[in-house]
Amino acid sequence: MKDKLTGNQNWRKILRYSTSFSRASKESPKEVTSESHKLLIRAGYIRQEMAGVFSLLPLGVKVLKNIETVIRDEMDSTGGQEVLMPALEPKQNWVTTGRWDTLDILFKVNSRYGNREYVLGPTHEEIVTPLVKSRVKSYKDLPLAVYQIQTKFRDEPRAKSGIIRGREFGMKDMYSFHVNHESLVTFYEQAKEAYLRVFSRCGITAKVTEASGGDFTKKISHEFMALSDAGEDIIIYCDSCAFAQNTEISKHKDADACPSCSHNLRTGKAIEIGNIFDLGTKFSEVFDFTFTDKDSTRKLVYMGCYGIGTTRLIGAIVEAHNDGKGIIWPHEVAPYSCHLVGLNLEESEIKERAEVVLQEIVKSGLSVLFDDRPNVGAGDKFATADLIGIPIRITIGRETFTEGEVEIKRREDSETIKVTISELSKRLVTIIEDARE
Length: 437
Ligand SMILES: [Zn+2]
Known about the structure:
Layout: E1 14-16, H1 35-42, E2 46-50, E3 53-56, H2 58-77, E4 81-82, E5 88-90, H3 91-97, H4 99-102, E6 107-110, E7 117-120, H5 125-133, E8 144-153, E9 168-178, H6 181-201, E10 207-212, E11 220-227, E12 233-238, E13 244-246, E14 265-280, H7 282-286, E15 290-292, E16 298-300, E17 302-309, H8 310-320, E18 322-323, E19 326-327, E20 338-342, H9 348-363, E21 368-371, H10 378-388, E22 392-396, H11 398-401, E23 405-410, E24 417-420, H12 421-436
Parallel strand pairs: 1-21, 4-8, 20-21, 20-22
Antiparallel strand pairs: 2-3, 5-7, 6-7, 8-9, 9-17, 10-11, 11-14, 12-13, 12-14, 14-17, 15-16, 18-19, 22-23, 23-24
Bound molecules: zinc ion.
Zinc ion (ZN) binds near residues 241, 243, 260 and 261.
C-alpha cells in the first residue's frame, strides 16, 4: 500500500531491526570508488557479488520499488503502456540492425545446442520494433508508446563507481511510434517533462544535456545529467539558464560566454541518469515497419526511445544526498518513512510504551523501521540511523519517558524536538507536508 502522505510504496509497514536481513556494518568495503558505493554497502542496501554486479538486500529492494513506482506513475501519465520483453534476445535481430558487429558492449551468449547464439539485451529496439510492427497496420493505430522496467546487460571493459555503472543493471526503457516527425517531437517533449518530474520526485536536479546519439541515432540526443564527482561524463553548462552540452559534442569551453544568456559557462562531472533519442526511421527501415496513411500510401514509422537507469538512480540519489555520517533519503524513495529508535528497552514499561509509539506511527499511515535491538547503546543506534538515512528519526527512551514524550529529529537537521505521543501523528504529518513544498 502507498503511504498517503509521502507517496512511498510500502507493503510492509513495520520492520523490526533485530529481524532485519539488511544489516549495517562498520567495515569499509575494499576497492570502493564512490561515496554511494561505500554507503550503500555499509548501510546494508546492496552487496557486491563481483565487479559491476550486485545483490539488492531488502532495504535496497524497497528503495528500488519506490523509484519504479515514481517512474511508472510518470510514464503512465505520458500514455505509455507497460510491457515486459525478454532479456534473452535472438542473434538474428541484431544481425538485421548491424549492431551484432558494431555494439562493443554486447554480451553474446552461446548455447550448447545447435551452435545457437543469443544476446543479453543492453537495449530493446531489436525486440520492440518487430513486436509493435505486428500490432500496427494503419495511421489509426498511432501514436503508441510502450515501456518496460527490466534487467539489462552491458559487457563493460571496466565496471566502477559501484551501482552507478554495472554490467547488470535495472532500467526503464520506453519506445514511441509515430506517423511523422512532428508527432514524434511532440511526444519527445512530453517525455522530457515526465523525466524531469521523475528526477525531481527522487530529489535530483537533472540538467537536460545535448549529446551525441551514439549507437542509436546520428541525430542529437538528450541526456539527463546529475552533477556529481562520481560521474563519468563531463558536461558544460550554465548556472543561470538551462543550457547544457556533453563536452563530447560541445564547441564551447569552460568560462566561455553562454550562447543563450551572457553568463560564464562551467564544466563539471555528471552522472547520466537518463537519456532520450529521436531515432527517426532508422529501425523501421531495417525491419520494414510501415503503416498505411490516410492517403492509402505506405509510410515508415518514426520512433523515439527513452531510458532511465533505475539501479543507477539509487547511486545517484545517494551521491546527491549524504553527509559524513550516512545517507539522507528524500521522503518518496526512502525504504521506510520513519526510523524509531528504542532505548532502554530492557525496562518493560519503556518497551511497552515503544510498542504504543510504533502503532501511533503506523496509524498516521507511515511505515517504520524500529530499532528494537536489546542492549545496544544510544550512540550505536543513532549512528545506525544516520547511516541508513531514513528521513525522520523518532526516539523513545528513559530520558523522555516520564513526561510521556518522544524526540523527533529530521535526518538533515541537527536539532531535535520533543512532542507528546498524542501530538506525534500531527507533527509527523506537518514535517512531511513541509518537505513536499
Ligand atoms: Zn545561460
